Structure to design on (652 residues):
C-alpha cells in the first residue's frame, strides 16, 4: 500500500440522504483514522474534509452504463477514477448500484481471469456472518460464474474474516443434490468437482441461522433473498411494536423489553455492516445501502478501509490466478 | 358438485408428524363439517373416520415420478386417484410435494390449455393475504408459463377470495420495468400486453406488506422467497425471545408482551393457512407443510373443502378456456 492510512474516496452525492448524512458519516470514519476524500459539488460543506470538486450527478433513475459514459465528471465516476489512477485506495458510494458496477468495469476493469464481478454482502446470521454472493451484480449468470463467485467468496472469508477453510454452500430449493433449477444443478456439479470446501445445497430458510461461511447464488436470486431478509426483519419488528402498543399491559412490557428489541434490531440491522464489496475488480469498491444514514456510511467507509488493510484486491488477484484461471 | 359436504381424501402417511397429527387434524376438520376419508395402512386408528386401506408409502426421499409409478397403492397416490375417479372431491397431503405433483399430473391430468400446474401459496401480508405462485412446482419456467400463473392466480383471487379485479405483480429485483433477469423481462412484456390488472414489478422486500393480490414468480424464485420468509419469521421471533430472556427486566417484560407476541406469531404462522393449492389440474389438490401439526392439517383440509365449495377447478377450467388458450 502506498500510504499508512487507507485512503477512501466517498461519493458525497450518492444515496437518499446525500449529501448531509454522507458527509457526517465520512467525518465519523475520518475520526476513526480513515483518510477520507469527498467527491461532490463546489461549495459543499465538508466540515473540513478534503473535497474533489465534481460537476455532474448520477441519479438513481439513470441508466447505469449510459450515465457513466455521459457523466464522467459525476461524483460517483470521479471517485471510482481516483482509485484507478492511484490517488485513493478504495471507493464508497450509496448511489446507483448499477452505475457503480458500470464505472468499476469501465475504469477499474476486471482482475485477470474474472468473468463477472459479484456483490458480496455479509448476512447477519445467528452463528456469525455468512457472505452471500452474488447479491445483484449480474441478473443472469452461468454455472461457471457461480463457481467463480464461490472462489471469490472463499478467498474473501480467508483473507478478511480469518476463516481458514470456509464452507461454501449453494442456495437452492432443497438440500438434496438433485434439487434446483437447471443453473443450480450445473453449478452444483462444478462446485462438487472443485477444490473448495463445498457443503452442498442450502435452503433459504437456513440463511439467518448461519448456514455456511459463503452462500452462492446468481445475482437475481441473491438479490431477492437479501431484500426479502431486510424487508422481513423490518416488517416483523414493526408489526410486533404495533401489537405491543395495542394494549396497556403490552405497552408496559414493551418498555421493559426495549433494550432486548434494540439489541435484536442492531444485530440484524444491515447498517451494522454498512455496505457490500464489489469483488473481482482491479480496485476496491464498496456499495452502501441507498437509504444509508451517517452510521451506515461510516461503517461502509470503515469496511472499505479494512479491505484495503487486508489487501483484498491483491489477495484475490494472486489467488484467483492460481485457482480459477482456465 | 356431487355431494352437499365436500369430500376430502387425506393421505394419512404424509408429513413428518404422520399418521398421529394427520388423523387428529382430519378429526378436527370432520368436526367442522368436512366429509373426510383417510388413506393409510390397515389397522390405523382413525378414531372412527372412514379409512381406505393402502399398502405402500412414498417417502420424502423418494424420486417423485418414479415413486408415483412404482407405488400405485401408496396412500398418497390412492388418495389422488380417488379424486380422479370421482369418489372424493379433493385431496390433501403433507408428504412429498414432488410426488403430489407427479401423481396429480399422472392421475388428474392438466386442465385443457394449462402448460404447467403451479403451487399457489397465501402469504400472510400486513394488508391481507397475497397469493404467491409458483411456489415450487416448476424449478425452471418460461415467460409464457409465468403469464399463465398470473391468470391462474387472478382467477383464484376472484373466485375464492372475492377480489373483483386482483392486482398482479411480478417478483423482481427492482420496480422499474427494465429490472430483472431475462425470464422476468420477457414475462414482464407478456403481462404488460395482457388483459390482467398488472401493476408491474415488485421487490421482495414488499412481500410481507401486501404488495399485491397475486405475486408471480418462477418456481425456483418463489420457493426461495417462501422458505426465506418462513425461516426469517421463526428465527427472528426465537432471537427476540432469547434476547428477552437474557435479563430479569426483559423476562418480566416478556411475560407482559406474551399475548402480543403470540398474536404476531399466529398472524405470520404458515399453519394459519395450512396448505397450498396445486392449480391447473382437473381436480383439487392441497399440499400441506411437511412439518404440519394437527392444526395445520385441519386448516389444509378446510382449505381444500373451501376450494371445492367455490368450484375452483371448474372456474379455472371455464376462465382459462376463455383467457389463456392460444
Amino acid at each position: 500500500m502506498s500510504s499508512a492510512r487507507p485512503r477512501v474516496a466517498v461519493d458525497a452525492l450518492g444515496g437518499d440522504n446525500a449529501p448531509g448524512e454522507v458527509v457526517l458519516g465520512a467525518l465519523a470514519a475520518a475520526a476513526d483514522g480513515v483518510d477520507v476524500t469527498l467527491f461532490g459539488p463546489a461549495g459543499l460543506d465538508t466540515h473540513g474534509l478534503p473535497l474533489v470538486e465534481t460537476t455532474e450527478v448520477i441519479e438513481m433513475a439513470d441508466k447505469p452504463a449510459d450515465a457513466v459514459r455521459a457523466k464522467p465528471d459525476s461524483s460517483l465516476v470521479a471517485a471510482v477514477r481516483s482509485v484507478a489512477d492511484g490517488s485513493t485506495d478504495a471507493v464508497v458510494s450509496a448511489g446507483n448500484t448499477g452505475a457503480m458496477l458500470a464505472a468499476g468495469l469501465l475504469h477499474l476493469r476486471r482482475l485477470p481471469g474474472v468473468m463477472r464481478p459479484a456483490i458480496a454482502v455479509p448476512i447477519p446470521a445467528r452463528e456469525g456472518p455468512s457472505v452471500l454472493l452474488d447479491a445483484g451484480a449480474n441478473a443472469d449468470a452461468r454455472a461457471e460464474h457461480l463457481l467463480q463467485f464461490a472462489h471469490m467468496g472463499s478467498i474473501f472469508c480467508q483473507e478478511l474474516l480469518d476463516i481458514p477453510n470456509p464452507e461454501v454452500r449453494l442456495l437452492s430449493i432443497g438440500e438434496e443434490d438433485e434439487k434446483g433449477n437447471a443453473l443450480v444443478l450445473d453449478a452444483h456439479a462444478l462446485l462438487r468437482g472443485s477444490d473448495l470446501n463445498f457443503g452442498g445445497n442450502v435452503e433459504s430458510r437456513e440463511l439467518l441461522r448461519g448456514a455456511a461461511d459463503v452462500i452462492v447464488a446468481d445475482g437475481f436470486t441473491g438479490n431477492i433473498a437479501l431484500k426479502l431478509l431486510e424487508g422481513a426483519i423490518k416488517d416483523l419488528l414493526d408489526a410486533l411494536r404495533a401489537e405491543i402498543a395495542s394494549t396497556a399491559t403490552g405497552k408496559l412490557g414493551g418498555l421493559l423489553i426495549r433494550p432486548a428489541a434494540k439489541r435484536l434490531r442492531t444485530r440484524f440491522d444491515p447498517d451494522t455492516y454498512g455496505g457490500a464489496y464489489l469483488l473481482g475488480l482491479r480496485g476496491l469498491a464498496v456499495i452502501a445501502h441507498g437509504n444509508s444514514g451517517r452510521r451506515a456510511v461510516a461503517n461502509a467507509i470503515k469496511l472499505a478501509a479494512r479491505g484495503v488493510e487486508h489487501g483484498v484486491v491483491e489477495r484475490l488477484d494472486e489467488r484467483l490466478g492460481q485457482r480459477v484461471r482456465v
